[in-house]
Amino acid sequence: MSMLSRTEILQAIRKKEIRVTPFRKENVGPCSIDLTLGNEFKVFEPKSLRVEEKAEYKGKRVVLKKGECMELPPHEFVLGITKETLKLSHSLAGRITGRSRFARMGLMVHVSSSLIQPGVDNVQVLEIVNVSPGTLYVIPGVRVCQVTFHRLGIPAEYRGRYRFQRAP
């Protein structure tokens, strides 16, 4: 399984195997597409969680207005979403990662679960944590993560509960 290059990504977009809404061609790099941070977050209530399949992730929904930013103190963890919706054909899977410029500040944009399943049509939920010693101010609209794409040998389809997710 090889990673798609810029040329292959743009071909897949033309064939509608990859749909990014809204799409900006300038966000396509040599082998990835940058996605921007949306304005909606989930801030967790301080409590203990039991790690099990039916776990409930309760928290407060925060929607920022234009010009506002999310204050992220050291060691704070929130869920955010991408502004863009990503739709993949059954022949492609993706991987989402943070961008190095923000990692160098101590901002982890996607902690785990980087796999984007074939057949999804959703916003990407970002697992955002501040590992720096100081407060970071996270600004919606910033190109905060990137997605790489991999062609599957045999098409497959994800039918799980997050397939059409639109909120954190």
SS-derived structural category: mainly beta
Ends distance: 30 Å
Total DSSP E strands: 11
Structural domain tally? 1
Features:
Deoxyuridine 5'-Triphosphate Nucleotidohydrolase, Chain A, mainly beta, 2 helices, 11 strands, 168 residues, 9-stranded antiparallel β-sheet, 8% helix, two-stranded antiparallel ribbon
Describe the protein:
With 168 residues, the protein is mostly beta strands. The chain has a single domain (6-45, 59-151), classed as Distorted Sandwich (Deoxyuridine 5'-Triphosphate Nucleotidohydrolase, Chain A). The protein contains 2 helices and 11 strands, in the order αββββββαβββββ. It has helices at 6-14, 100-103; strands at 18-21, 33-44, 59-63, 70-72, 77-88, 92-98, 107-108, 115-116, 121-130, 136-138, 143-151. Strands 1, 2, 3, 5, 6, 7, 8, 9 and 11 form a 9-stranded antiparallel beta sheet that branches. It is globular. The mean pLDDT is 91.
Quick structural summary:
With 168 residues, the protein is mainly beta. It is 8% helix and 41% strand. It has two helices and eleven strands.
List the helices and strands and how they pair.
Elements (H helix, E strand, L loop, with lengths): L5 H9 L3 E4 L11 E12 L14 E5 L6 E3 L4 E12 L3 E7 L1 H4 L3 E2 L6 E2 L4 E10 L5 E3 L4 E9 L17
Antiparallel strand pairs: 1-5, 2-3, 2-5, 2-11, 4-10, 5-9, 6-8, 6-11, 7-9
